[in-house]
Hints:
By secondary structure, the chain is an alpha+beta fold. It has helices at 2-13, 16-21, 45-48, 59-67; strands spanning 25-36, 53-57, 89-99. It has one domain (2-99). Helix content is 31%, strand content 28%. Strands 2-1-3 form a three-stranded antiparallel beta sheet. It is elongated. The mean pLDDT is 85.
Amino acid sequence: MAMRKANRLQQRFGSLIIAEQQGRITREDGEIYFVNRFLDEPSFRRFTAEYQIVYFFSEPAIRFCSENKIDLPDVIETLARASLSKGLGIAARFPVYTTVI
Length: 101
């Protein structure tokens, strides 16, 4: 899905790097992190007591899922990325492009 959108934008604008430099599109990193119950991290105990795995989606990742009609589970809490432990695993990292003009 991300590649299809990137291909459509490339057909429309040409080089995505140049289009970004010209301010015609923006590129953000969509990121999905996870923590599992076996990681003994005090700040995540409130999640891992009830859930096997907890996923954290960046705003661009949530927007990407919404645009592509990908159903996500209910949000249990909203946290700032800076408040998350460095012990998170990375499930996915991908570019999210948005047309400015």
